[in-house]
Write a structure and sequence with these properties.
The complex is a heterodimer of chains A (152) and B (252). With 152 residues, chain A is α/β, with parallel strands linked by helices. Chain A contains 3 helices and 7 strands. Chain A has a 4-stranded mixed β-sheet with strand order 4-7-6-5. Chain A has a 3-stranded mixed β-sheet with strand order 1-2-3, with helices on one face. Classes of the chains: A alpha/beta (152), B mainly alpha (252). The structure holds zinc ion.
Chain lengths: 152, 252
């Protein structure tokens, strides 16, 4: 069975990121290519951070999803070049992140506003947060801490 | 020495630096003075171990089919090619942060250069790692400044850390046959040529941190060529490798 690659992309849009399940692996911009190589479907995935423990889980989730849709010959390849950048995050993904309480990345290097109350009075606590892709910030208006999806 | 032999040594040096420092930093997990620092150190360790997988993965491929895990867990102390700086024990939090800054400063400069390596595989790893290391450097630099220009206690500890670690800095800029082959082939920069940029960065930050850089340029060596590691590396390996040594081939 050789389904169209558009169909495969649609299926992948339903595979959630294991650490931030509100966005899909496609929203995250880590699926770089989907193509048929004779009878084998090739999915090219790039890691977010080189040590991110979610990478192997993501590959497994992609494989499970595509097998469930009946793809028999499947090969997931890892590519590190060009390196992943937060610029590949989809517009839809950015909106979903903010709604979920994670400030989306900004070119300026810090969150635009608090994802809880919308205040611009925000402060960096640490460049590092609960997962490799996030930094730890706080809002001085509503006093809540929040995650910022940091630029890379 | 052939090109591939030199390339494998170069890759082991890069990967062993990140592996051993990554392991050292991970020793803080659950022990750092505050939660934010614990999280930051664990994330830095994670990045370094991830970079290790790429460097050692490529080294193993060139050497004929070993995996990054084989190289990490099945070699003995004399086979490691990391600089001595990364294997010294953590000491107090100040010494850990100072070691991190002294390494991050070198790491960011060398990765920047390696991005334009004549070997595409090396350039790709460097481009990926560089983005992560920019955050490591930002944090270690700011923390060195914060603690150096902090209380009397934190200042004296940071000065003590700098005095203790400074003799380990020179090894990062040493040059031998491996480096000569890599430089000639356009794979890697000449380590010595990075020193001026490094010194400028260190001086700027230490001035801000109100710390005094020792004048003595004596350098402990023997890590990156494997000639003589400190006794600390063996102790570290007993922790890092015990599972594969006790249960060879064990996997998840
Ligand atoms: Zn708020």
């Amino acid at each position: 069975m050789r389904v169209s690659t558009d169909q495969v992309w649609e299926w992948l849009e339903a595979v959630p990121d294991p650490e931030i399940p509100v966005i899909s692996v496609v929203d995250l911009g880590i699926v770089r290519d989907v193509r048929w190589d004779a009878e084998t479907l090739k999915v090219i995935v790039t890691p977010t951070y080189s040590g991110c423990p979610a990478t192997s889980v993501i590959n497994m989730d992609i494989e499970t999803a595509l097998r469930d849709h009946g793809v028999e010959h499947l090969k997931i390849e890892t590519s590190i070049s060009p390196p992943w950048t937060t610029e590949w995050l989809s517009e839809q993904g950015r909106a979903k992140l903010e709604k979920y309480g994670i400030a989306p990345p900004q070119p300026a290097g810090g969150p635009q506003r608090c994802p809880h109350c919308g205040s611009k009075a925000v402060q960096k606590v640490s460049q590092f947060g609960s997962t490799p892709c996030k930094a730890h910030w706080r809002c001085t208006e509503c006093m809540e801490p929040f995650d910022y999806f940091k630029c890379i | 020495m052939t090109h591939d032999e030199a390339l494998a040594q170069f890759l082991l040096r890069m990967g062993d630096n990140t592996l051993i420092l990554g392991h050292r930093v991970s020793e803080w997990c659950g022990h750092a003075p505050v939660l934010e620092e614990d999280i930051a150190l664990a994330n830095i360790a994670l990045d370094l171990i991830g970079q290790t997988q790429m460097w050692l993965g490529l080294a193993g491929q060139i050497q004929g089919g070993q995996s990054a895990d084989d190289l990490a867990f099945l070699r003995d102390a004399w086979d490691f090619r990391n600089v001595l700086l990364v294997e010294v024990p953590n000491g107090d939090f100040g010494r850990t942060i100072m070691r991190q800054f002294l390494f991050d400063a070198w790491h960011s400069i060398v990765l920047e250069q390696l991005q334009s390596s004549a070997d595409d595989r090396v350039a790709a790893i460097a481009a990926k790692a560089r983005k992560e290391v920019a955050y490591h450097l930002e944090r270690s630099r700011d923390t060195v400044v914060g603690l150096g220009d902090g209380t009397e206690e934190s200042h004296s500890r940071m000065q003590g850390a700098l005095d203790y670690l400074w003799p380990y800095v020179g090894e990062m800029f040493a040059v031998d046959e491996v480096d000569a082959i890599m430089t000639d082939a356009g794979v890697a920069p000449n380590p010595f040529d990075l020193r001026a940029q490094y010194d400028a960065l260190i001086e700027k930050v230490m001035t801000k941190a109100t710390l005094t850089i020792p004048e003595n340029r004596f350098a402990h060596k023997g890590g990156r060529d494997g000639r003589m590691h400190t006794e600390h590396l063996g102790h570290l390996l007993t922790q890092m490798q015990w599972l594969q040594r006790a249960y060879p081939g064990a996997s998840w």
